[in-house]
Amino acid sequence: MLGSSRIKTEIPGPRSRALMERRRGAVSAGVLSGTPIFVEEAHGALLTDVDGNTFIDFAGGIGVMNVGHTSPRVIERVKAQAEALTHTCFAVNAYEPYVELAEKLNALVPGDGEKRSMFVNSGAEAVENAVKTARHYTGRDAVLVFENAFHGRTLLTASMTSKIDPYKKGFGPFAPEIYRVPAPYAYRCPAYQDCSGGCRGTCLDFVDRAFIGLVDPKNLAAIVVEPISGEGGFIPFPDFYLRRLRELCDEHGIVLIVDEVQSGFGRTGKMFAIEHSPGVIPDIVTTAKSMAGGLPLGGVTGKAEIMDAVHPGGLGTTFGGNPLAVSAALGVLETFEEENLLGKAEKLGERVTAAMEEIRGRHETVGDVRGLGAMNAMELVSDRESRKPDKARTAKVVENALKEGLMLMTAGQYGNVIRTLMPLVISDEELEEGLAILDRAMTASEETAEGPRQEKRGVGTT
């Protein structure tokens, strides 16, 4: 058992508590720390805190560490680049790694046509620049987005994001010409519950109705969609829904922007989640998070005629595509090739889904298990009949898991979804121990709320 020997103090330990006191006196209270520990080092899928406790990482820095912490190829590339050049600003003096990464990304993003890329510092910047580009190309103003979406925290991307607390609360007024429609969410769709044959896409009507009552499609520059929502709770968009969006964009001359910030770079078993929907070719794809193995980098990749429509100087940033970051991203791509991380992601997702279904079979408070590839989640409810979200129990599960050495994260509009974003390089032993801790954390949360209970026998129990 990994956990039995790796937790050496109470959580948080004394050094983490002392650092937390210093943090309160130095760091804005508006900056959240989801756990009360301070990490000292990390390798692969393991984090070690300042008190010597080691945790299995199922959070991956919010989906940033797909190739693992301190990935050898990434470190090698960054060290070599740091000795040669750390910054010039690509807009002032260009350098080859930026161009090399753009070439590789253009080849990886779905679509046979010619493409162009540009680099920024974050996912929010990537989305913002994608929207700017779509507006410039079309000469239109409006943007259509979906419920449960998260696109960033800048003024424009916060306007596009579909959650008030904490992302929008007190930060208005927001950007104009942003229109939002309901998104597919099978577990919470009343129509779906009445469809024995599965989802029939009732929510697609909201897009057609939006073109009548919300926004003129001839003034719509872009539709922006996550193929599987991230912060919204790991809710996949059905293939037919994405195909219909592509058709609507073609019909009305709208740019289809696919936000792959969290779902991209192998998380779903393909390099990009949109590849699970054959025939749906985006006009623009936004990337970030796991692209550079922990260094700040975001990308905008799109059809050449769209990306080249912007005048020289219209797109840019001082630090975007920094030599260290783009070199790290080249190391990430090398790691994917050498270690077959796409294949590992697919197998990892199968195991995590099976384990979550086993947990669901033993725990009535798990209402739904869903995901795509290794982007997996389970939604916690007070009871399966009412499906009432149980945010408090979800927080307790995360707390219980941390005490045993497992790092978890939540998601969802109600904060009642546990999502897994472990590095794809996680070992089988680490994975199984983490899943076992998750199961025990679920049991402990139920006993805390209800007292000791009779264990329900399910798949995988003895």
Automatic annotation (TrEMBL):
Pathway: Amino-acid degradation; 4-aminobutanoate degradation
Catalytic activity: 4-aminobutanoate + 2-oxoglutarate = succinate semialdehyde + L-glutamate; (S)-3-amino-2-methylpropanoate + 2-oxoglutarate = 2-methyl-3-oxopropanoate + L-glutamate
Annotated SUPFAM superfamilies: PLP-dependent transferases (SSF53383)
Statement: the UniProt record of this protein carries the keyword Electron transport: no
Molecular function per GO: (S)-3-amino-2-methylpropionate transaminase activity; 4-aminobutyrate:2-oxoglutarate transaminase activity; identical protein binding; pyridoxal phosphate binding
Top-level taxon of the source organism: Bacteria
InterPro entries, per database record: 4NH2But_aminotransferase_bac (IPR004632), Aminotrans_3 (IPR005814), Aminotrans_3_PPA_site (IPR049704), Class-III_PLP-dep_AT (IPR050103), PyrdxlP-dep_Trfase (IPR015424), PyrdxlP-dep_Trfase_major (IPR015421), PyrdxlP-dep_Trfase_small (IPR015422)
CDD domains: OAT_like
KW Transferase (keyword) present: yes
Principal EC category: transferase
Keywords assigned by UniProt, alphabetized: Aminotransferase, Pyridoxal phosphate, Transferase
Region Disordered, annotated ranges: 443-462
Transmembrane segments: none
Basic and acidic residues bias spans: 450-462
Enzyme Commission no: 2.6.1.19, 2.6.1.22
Family membership: Belongs to the class-III pyridoxal-phosphate-dependent aminotransferase family.
Protein name: (S)-3-amino-2-methylpropionate transaminase
Native source species: Rubrobacter marinus
